[in-house]
Amino acid sequence: MSFYDNRYYYLNKTFLSILGQWPFQSRLEGNVMVGITLLFICSLTALELLGLITGITNLSIIMENTSPLLINSLILVKLINSICNKYKMKDLLEHIEQTWKTTQIGPENEILRSYAEQSRTLTIQYAFALYSAGFFYSMMPILVSGIYSLLPTNETYTARFIYRLEHVLDVDKYFNLLMLHTFISVFFLLSVSIAVDCMFILCIQHVCALFQGIRYKIGCIRGSDFVILKPNIKNDEAYHVIIDCIKSYKRALKFSDLLSSTYATSFFFLLGNVVISLSFNAAELMMVDNQLDEIIRIIAGNVAQLIHIFYLSFTSQRLIDHSSELQNEIYSSEWYTISLRSRQLLSFTLMRTFKPCQIRAGKIYVMSLENFSSILQVSISYFTMLTSIQ
Hints:
This protein is mainly alpha-helical. It has 10 helices and 2 strands; from the N terminus they run αααααααααββα.
């Protein structure tokens, strides 16, 4: 049985395998699943783009087709980035497995288990939230029509398709086929986001566990009541603990840098895409004559995007916080009771902790909760601009 078949990482393995992005699956299986995923995502994108191009003179069609196209392009970038950086993801997973193998007992193992359990919980919550939003997004035409058919009224309710295509082909004639295609395509779109983002969450939780383990070891540094400034190096226990902390700190920094470089490109594209897409969706509610099913669909799409960017910002903020907290741990340690050589090592480590680990989008933008609020502010600004041209 694979190491990743355990309770903590099985879901991540399953999500990535569905898309052919699990680094340890066979090449044939991976290529087949990638092909199926691209087939549905690209075919949905092509239909939405066709509807936009042929109805480019209609403001309503522009508003209703642009937003899903932006979301599709974001998902495609995520998938392509994952394919291109598959070897990096494999390195990250191998590092995680190696850490577990070298830390099988003791408090550090308990820390790993605690953070891995948190990762599992975040994965379940994130997947449930996005799949629920996707269900309401794609199934609203059928659900609302079904509800109206059960109501004691003679009025008929004609649900509109989730994107504008009626000026290209007879949507009523092919409604069921188009809905089936859309539902499957949305499933793959959401699965890409869930698989790739939950892999990111998994790695963030792991590196946070590494920093927490270092904090624990620094907190265990103890000198003697009678301070010996220059003891024999073999008898200097604090010195050896600090050396171990420095080695662990270097591994954590290397892991963090590799993680940041893996997602830098896709996150850079994500930020601009989300701002524009949220603005278009919000403006669509104000500028277009929407029915009940369309209103619910637009709200579901916006909620999914907000959950998406919030989870990425939240977990990135955890990395910043955990790497910064090492400063306080070093300050509060009993550094005044250890040898001079140990104090020097500890001071060098303290200097490095002044620069917290960060996840950067395109090496420019720092992913954090503070900047998440900035994204919302910019989205509102663009929304205001779009509504002003009505």
